[in-house]
Amino acid sequence: MTEGKTKTPHAIHLPGNELMGFAGLYTWWPDKTLPEDHADYWTLTATILTREAVGNVRQLHERTPVTLPPSFWDEWLDPDEEGDQSLVDAAVAAATPVAEALEFYPVDPLRGDGPELVDPAS
């Protein structure tokens, strides 16, 4: 949430702190300015797919990651699956009930890199 220019960080989770899986994509890009045998010739890039926010998280932002239910993980990760728009559409549809169930609470600004990051704001 943002009030004026001040942003309030939030911890977002599923009820019961269930494990969340996001729909992501990756690809390798060649740097054609380098020789093919150069150690930096290939660069790995990755992204998390987003969708219009639904449910309570709309209060925080208009977009949210595509949060896949465990029942869709195998299909999304199947290396033999054709990665086309119909798969993305199916992932977004499968993610809707998960996205609607997300819960959140405010946390303090960054103050470390451990589990204290999700302690409720003081």
Describe the structure.
- By secondary structure, the chain is α+β, with helices and mostly antiparallel strands.
- The protein has one domain.
- Helix content is 20%, strand content 30%.
- The protein contains two helices and ten strands.
- The strands form five sheets. It has a two-stranded antiparallel sheet with strand order 1-2. Strands 3-10 form a two-stranded antiparallel sheet.
- A hairpin with a 2-residue loop joins strand 1 (2-3) and strand 2 (6-7).
- It is globular and about 55 Å long.
- The two termini are 17 Å apart.
- The mean pLDDT is 91.
Can you summarize this structure?
InterPro entries: SRAP (IPR003738), SRAP-like (IPR036590). The protein has 122 residues and is α+β, with helices and mostly antiparallel strands.
- Global shape: globular
> What's the helix-strand series?
EEEEEEEEEHHE
Average pLDDT taken over every residue:
91
Tell me the β content: 25-35%
Organism: Arthrobacter cryoconiti
Family: Belongs to the SOS response-associated peptidase family.
Pfam family, one: SRAP
Protein name: Abasic site processing protein
